[in-house]
C-alpha cells in the first residue's frame, strides 16, 4: 500500500455548546473529553457502507498499538500532537477499490495517511462505488386487438364473407315436409329468393330431408343445364338419396336472373325451385 506524508491538522477553536454548557477549547493538551482540560484531541474514522455492508476496514496504528476498525464510526482518543497512521483496506478490491482519504477537508490518494492530532479530527476513506445501471423499462405488452369477424350471417340459411367474396347457402330439400317435400328450406315456387354479387363464389351445403330423391341445379327459368360450371349437385336427374348431404360450389360469373331447381323429372314443375339472382354489386341477400 502507498504511504503518504504525515498530515498535521489543527482544529478550529470551538465555542460553547447549546444546552450542554461545556466549553470546548480545542486540544488543551489533554485526552478526549477531559472534564478539567476541555475536549482534548481525537481522530474519528468514518467508513462508508453500501446496502451489503461496509465498503472497507481501517487499520489504525497509534504508538506501538495496532487495531482494526470495522464499524461505521470509531473515535480514537489521542494526546495533543500524537500521531495516528490510518490504512484503508477495501472489502472487495475488485468492485470497490480504494480511492482516497478525506481528512478534515483535505484529500490524499495514498491508502495510508499519518495524522498528527491537534484537536478533533474526522477522517474517512473513500471507495469506488459503480453507478447503478439504469433499469431497462419493461415494454408494455399491448393486448392484440380482437379481430373483427368477417363473416356475416343473415339467417340460418345464408352467410357471407365480404373479404373472401364468398357466400354459403344452406339448402335443405323437403324441409318440414312443405309442399309434400317438394321445397327448399321450407319454401316452394320461388318464395325463397337469394342474390349474390357477380364474381362471388357460392358454396351450397345441400341435404335431403325428404323421403324421395332430390337435386339442386342453378339453371335459367327454362333451362335444364347448369349455367355456371359446378353449379349442380351430382346426377341432377337422379338426385340425392333421402338423408344424404353434399357440398358443391361455383362462381357466379354473369349478372342475371336464374333459379335453383330440382331436375328430378316432374319436381320443378310441381314448385320445387327457388329464385337465384346475380347482381352487379352490393352484398348477398335472402328473402323468404
Strand content: 35-45%
Structural class: mainly beta
Please give the share of residues in helix: under 10%
Low-pLDDT parts are: 5-38
The H/E string reads: EEEEEEEEEEEEEEEEEEEEEE
- Total number of beta strands: 22
The average pLDDT value, as a whole number, equals 85
Largest sheet: 5 strands, mixed
Q: What integer value in Å does the Rg equal?
A: 51 Å
The N- and C-terminal alpha carbons lie at a distance of 102 Å
Q: Give, in spatial order, the strands making up the sheet with the most strands.
A: 1-11-8-5-6
List keywords for this structure.
288 residues; mainly beta; 0% helix; five-stranded mixed sheet
Q: Can you tell me about this structure?
A:
- There is one protein chain.
- The protein is mostly beta strands.
- The protein contains no helices and 22 strands.
- The protein has strands at 3-8, 41-46, 49-50, 53-54, 56-62, 65-69, 73-78, 83-90, 98-103, 106-108, 112-116, 120-127, 152-153, 158-161, 166-173, 193-197, 201-208, 217-219, 245-251, 256-261, 273-279, 285-287.
- It has a 5-stranded mixed beta sheet, with no helix packed on it. A 5-stranded mixed beta sheet has the order 7-2-12-9-10, with no helix packed on it. Strands 13-14-15-17-19 form a 5-stranded mixed beta sheet, with no helix packed on it.
- It is rod-shaped.
- 30% of the residues are buried.
- Mean pLDDT is 85; it is low at 5-38.
Question: Quick gist of this model?
Answer:
Helix content is 0%, strand content 41%.
Blueprint of the fold:
Blueprint: E1 3-8, E2 41-46, E3 49-50, E4 53-54, E5 56-62, E6 65-69, E7 73-78, E8 83-90, E9 98-103, E10 106-108, E11 112-116, E12 120-127, E13 152-153, E14 158-161, E15 166-173, E16 193-197, E17 201-208, E18 217-219, E19 245-251, E20 256-261, E21 273-279, E22 285-287
Parallel strand pairs: 1-11, 2-12, 15-17, 16-21
Antiparallel strand pairs: 2-7, 3-4, 5-6, 5-8, 8-11, 9-10, 9-12, 13-14, 14-15, 16-22, 17-19, 18-20, 20-21
